[in-house]
Amino acid sequence: MVWKIVKSSLHRVLKAIRMCFWNIDTSIPKHKPFLILKLPLVPFKLVTEFMDSNEIIKLSMCSYRLEYFLRISKYKLKKLNVHLSDQRLRYDLTQSNNCSSIFFRKGKSEKQLESVSKMQQLCERYDSEDNTVLNIEYFSSNTVFDLYKCINALFSCSSVGWNFYLDQLSTETMMHYLNLLLAEKCTGFSFMRGSLSTPLLTELMDKIPVSKRLEIGSDIPIDFKHPNALKYYVARYHSGRWITLNDLKSIRNVGCVELKSTIFDCSDVNQFLNYWVNCEEDMLELLELNLQEGAIIDVFALTDQLITLRVEGASSSNFFIKAKNHKNRKFVLGHVEIGEGNSVGFTAWEAIGKKTRVFRILELLERKKELEEEISMIEKRENQSGFSDFSEEIRKKTEAYAELRRLKISLNEQDHVGYHFEI
């Protein structure tokens, strides 16, 4: 019954609320005021759940009592990203099906806020709304963290990232906020534009836990090294020319590594893939990189010495590989895709669901190669002088040939529509 009342009143509620926002839309006809604060908490939550994040923000600015009820409700966000420079502060709030932003512009004001403890303090500073962007005038450096605490208190969000623009932000200011945020539930940090010196980048990696996401969009010295650089669960480096092949081989149990520029060619990627196949531990779930400038994609160089299952009819060249030792590993199926330009992507998956079919074919191909190598070794020994145990070798070769024939029949019987391999 309560839900029917709430649903029938929703359209009127939203119009009435918009009328409260400083006469933003005077063309809306006047309605009898809807006393939203008179609603019990459950109907209040049902009504406000229909609002987007910016409407929640505006509602919280109307009164502290409204803000209090909204804080109790904790509206779900998919992502919250904060962008900080010297003159601007922007919040990107992503829900399941839409994204909105709050834009604070720094400026001179006779009533400069020194601290913010309530969203209502921003009421007089509301400037305008442009589609999905709220514009609020004036913020001071002293209020940045206060604003974050107030806005974050309204939402429940599992992904919170901060983006620092180093070409517009002093090192002292950046480090001040980073130290404060490390005590909060932030999941990732990005440092964009400008450049980072080796001492500063070292300090950042010493401070930021490897469980966080780290993105460095700034220039990085070519001789930079740090033991945590490729231990972050998600690491994105726009400048990755300082990373070596041995660095890639040292990766263990991370989620994603993205390198916009590198010193690698197809031979280096092939060495990494062969290392991944033979590694005893899980290395990573996703690797995206661009080859060195001027490098040409050579599929044969990429697949050298690898057992592959190629995907037919795809818009770009891509193939599957498998880990040899899969007893101690979770992500045992690898997928390589050649993208536009000189980009290469590698994804490691579990061999579950539909992927078990791909994994089974690769298992058979792997065994096929082992049998062929075994037969080749027997035949080499047969041709050597002084060979004595001829009957035993003949028996082994006969058994190997018999298993190889059965295996080829099994490969032909597999459902390999959409895939290509050599029998």
UniProtKB/TrEMBL annotation:
Keywords: Coiled coil. Residues 361-414 form a coiled coil. The keyword Coiled coil applies. The keyword Methyltransferase does not apply. Transmembrane segments: none annotated. InterPro entries: F-box_Sdz-33 (IPR012885). Pfam families: FBA_2. Residues 233-289 form the Sdz-33 F-box domain. PANTHER family: F-BOX ASSOCIATED DOMAIN-CONTAINING PROTEIN-RELATED (PTHR21503:SF8), F-BOX-CONTAINING HYPOTHETICAL PROTEIN C.ELEGANS (PTHR21503). This is Sdz-33 F-box domain-containing protein. It comes from Caenorhabditis remanei (Caenorhabditis vulgaris).
